[in-house]
């Protein structure tokens, strides 16, 4: 379970505790009548008013059908055996329609609509399940992340290896179980560069559908760039004029130039004035130049390789003077920048709450790259914010970051521990209008395709 990407308490925490049974009489002050023999009167609170129910013969009411895990469960003592007819007509304001989910589960009365986003990348497999929160925000109720290295060896062979596909399928089976356990209202499950580039990408997706029961959608690079921007929208502050957002992936790197100097639209992706996708990421670059033993000469060669690719981006100057002003900054979403931030903070254990949204000055980034270049491979492995999974990839990511900083020099870099999944959730919820008043009540009985 993760904390919400956009704040709020973890799902499952009750917002209001039911009132405890009480033998006190009415508020008028008259003594309460004694219950008839064989009957027991109980009282509980529901939405601010007292509700009375009787259990015949002093028997406990039969337990109801279990609710999903994210809905607080009342005890037997708090559940009436049978609700009076007048109460049955007063359904909770946000009661969800009872629809079986893939795993046979049903939505609980009073539950909120669940949305899911899955991102299978070149290096990672990630899932988020969330409910809408305050306007423009959502609350995560379940999450999963595993490094699978699906693109391992892809740059040399042009194909996904059997071992890499096995790792990815096992991770996707976990995701499928999580999705089946919940009644998800809408979902979007995507695959990116590794599946786009591999000659056997379609074959792999068919295997995923058969063995994991998940239908993945391969998105194009423009969609990937837009989703990355949508996911990071809350980190672009109101006094900003322009941003270069970059997402350094395992097999590709997306870069978007964003102009917010004029009237701002709630969807940050609508402010993209130019974008590009470089067919190079931490996995592919490390495989070509080596990631374990990286000399300064090797590092500079990696930077030069990425710079040459950026020179082919004809619209790199579209921000003009805005990119040279004080209200311009870089915004990075990837394991590279979050790793740099963790090392910069000296964290003994990675802490997303301290990393997401962190500002780093130009001198801070310089210092962290120099520090990582000075470490041997085993020293990178030993760092708690890098570890064995990223020790051979982090300097390739730094080389891509360095090339981006040379094209768009900036005094400030903001770190985002969020990206495609958050962008998917934000866009799905915005499309449905979930933050409009009364949306869930109007949505009763009609489910999106």
Primary descriptors:
Nucleotidyltransferase, domain 5, six-stranded mixed beta sheet, globular, five-stranded mixed beta sheet, 449 residues, disordered N terminus
List the helices and strands and how they pair.
Elements: E1 39-46, E2 49-56, H1 85-88, E3 114-120, E4 124-132, E5 138-147, H2 154-157, H3 162-180, E6 184-191, H4 193-197, H5 201-211, E7 217-218, H6 221-232, E8 242-248, E9 253-259, E10 272-278, H7 282-289, H8 296-311, E11 328-333, H9 335-345, H10 352-355, E12 359-361, H11 362-374, H12 377-382, H13 387-390, H14 394-407, E13 412-416, H15 420-432, H16 439-442
Parallel strand pairs: 3-6, 6-7, 8-11, 11-13
Antiparallel strand pairs: 1-2, 3-4, 4-5, 8-9, 9-10, 12-13
Major β-sheet strand ordering: 10-9-8-11-13-12
* Uncertain segments: 1-35, 37-110
Q: What portion of residues is helical?
A: 25-40%
CATH fold-level name of the domain at 236-423: Nucleotidyltransferase, domain 5
| CATH architecture type of the domain at 236-423 | 2-Layer Sandwich
Distance between the amino and carboxyl termini: 27 Å
CATH top level of the domain at 236-423 is Alpha Beta
Mean pLDDT comes to 79
Shape: globular
Structural class: alpha/beta
Give the count of helical stretches.
16
* Order of H and E elements: EEHEEEHHEHHEHEEEHHEHHEHHHHEHH
Kindly state the number of beta strands.
Answer: 13
Main β-sheet description: 6 strands, mixed
Please give the radius of gyration in angstroms. 26 Å
Classified in CATH, the superfamily of the domain at 236-423 is Exopolyphosphatase. Domain 2
